[in-house]
Amino acid sequence: MPLPILVTGGAGYIGSHTCVALIEAGHVPLVLDNLCNSSVESLARVQRITGVRPLWVEGDIRDAALLQRVLAEHRPQAVIHFAGLKAVGESVREPLAYYDNNVGGTTILLQAMQEAGLRNLIFSSSATVYGNPASVPISEDFPRSATNPYGRSKLMIEDILGDLVGADPRWRVARLRYFNPVGAHASGLIGEDPRGIPNNLMPYITQVAVGRLPELQVFGGDWPTPDGTGVRDFIHVMDLAEGHVAALAHLLGEPGMFTVNLGTGQGCSVLQMVQAFERNSGRRVPYRIVPRRAGDIAACWADASAAHRLLHWQARRDLDTICADAWRWQQANPQGLR
After folding, report:
1. By C-alpha distance, which of 204, 202, 188 is closest to 333?
2. Could you tell me which residues are beta bridge partners of residue 122?
3. CA–CA separation, 33 and 57 (whole Å)
4. What is the pTM of this model?
5. Which listed site, 31, 125, 200, 248, has its alpha carbon 20 to 30 Å from 165?
6. Structural domains in the chain (count)
7. How is residue 330 annotated by DSSP?
8. Is residue 305 included in any domain, yes or no?
9. Is position 209 within any domain?
10. Annotation marks residue 178 as catalytic
C-alpha cells in the first residue's frame, strides 16, 4: 500500500475535492480536520464517489502532540496543507484568530514535519497575495501585498516557506496561488457548503436560486470594468484539485520550491456569472447592486502559463460546466451537508 498523503483541512470544500482527485490518481489521502468550517459527511461522500474512504483524524494543526503522533503512525510521504481560516471580512474583525490559526498553525505543522523528517509540502496560497495588481493578467513575479489580515497571513506563510527552503534545501515546497474556486463535483455529492451567509459569489447565487436567500448582493456596479461589476478568474474546483495532483507529482520528482498560479487565465464579471448560471439552471437570480466592500479590487485574473509549463496542467472545465455542476450540487443538497 502506498504511503498516504496528509491533507490538512481535507474535509472542507477544496480539500474534499482534492481527496477525490488523489484517490483517482492512486494516492491514499489521510485527512486531518478540526471541522470548524466543514463536515465529516464530505468524506463519506468521497467514498461514494470513489469507492475509497479517506483515512481520517479529527484534530487541529495547532496540536503539536497530535501532529507528532499522526506523522509517526502513518508516515505520510507529503502534506497538502489546506487548513486555514479564509473569510476576508472575518479576518478584519478577528485578526488574532487568523494569525493564530493560519500562521501559528502552519509553523507548528512545519516543526512537526521537520522533527519527523518529512519535508514535502504543498501549500494552499491565494491570489490575494497580489493585493491590488497594477495590471492583468497576473503572473507569479508580480509584486506582492495584502489588503487584509487573511491576505497577510498567506503572505507571511509564503515567506516562512521561502526562509525554510533557504535554510534547508532538502525541503520540497509548492506554493499554489489559487484564484476563485467554484463549482462542484459532477456527481452532485460534494460541493461548496459555507456556514452562514456565503462570502463567495457562487454559493450566494445557488442559495438564491434554491430559495435559501432572497436576492444576490452585488458589491459595486461602478468598477472600471466592461459592465461595472468586479471581474475574477473563476476556476472549477475539480480543475484546482487536479492541479494539486500535478503539483505533487512534480514536487516528488525534484527538490526545491516552486510557485504557480492556478487559474483559467480568463476574467469573468459578476453579472456574466449570473447570466451563465441562469442559462444553465433555468432559474432567475434576482440581484441588487450595493456599495463596494472595503478591500475589494476591480479585476483579477491569472497568467496560468507557468503551471502549464511546469506541471503540464491547465484548467479544462468551462463556465457552463461550472454553473451546471454548482446547480446540481445545490439542488441535491439544498441545506448543504447538514
Report:
1. 188
2. 80, 174
3. 7
4. 0.97
5. 31
6. 1
7. H
8. no
9. no
10. no
Phi, psi of 94 (to 5 degrees): -130, 65
pLDDT score for 256 = 94
* Residue 264: HSE in the Cβ half-sphere, 13 Å Cα cutoff: 20
Distance CA 9, CA 32 (A): 6
- Bridge-based pairing state of the strands 172-178 and 256-262: parallel
For residue 338, is pLDDT > 80?
A: no
Decide: 112 and 71 in contact? Cβ < 8 Å. yes
If phi over 0 gives left and psi between -120 and 50 gives alpha, with beta otherwise, what is residue 265?
left
Cell of 237: 474546483
* Residue 318 is assigned to a structural domain of this protein: no
**Average pLDDT score over the chain:** 96
Indicate the SS3 state at residue 23: helix
Cell (9 digits) for 37:
468550517
Short-list 10, 20, 2, CA closest to 61: 10
Enclosing domain of residue 14 = 5-182+235-263
Q: Peptide bond preceding 133: is omega within 30 degrees of 0, i.e. cis?
A: no
Q: Is residue 309 part of a domain?
A: no
Q: How far apart are CA 297 and CA 274, in angstroms?
A: 19
Residue tagged 479564509 (cell numbers): 86
Side chain identity, residue 145 = S
Vertex 118 angle, CA 112 and 121, to 5°: 90
User: Does residue 332 surpass a pLDDT of 80?
Assistant: yes
**Residue at 222: amino acid letter:** D
Residue tagged active-site, from 150, 178, 204, 287: 150
CATH number for 246: 3.40.50.720
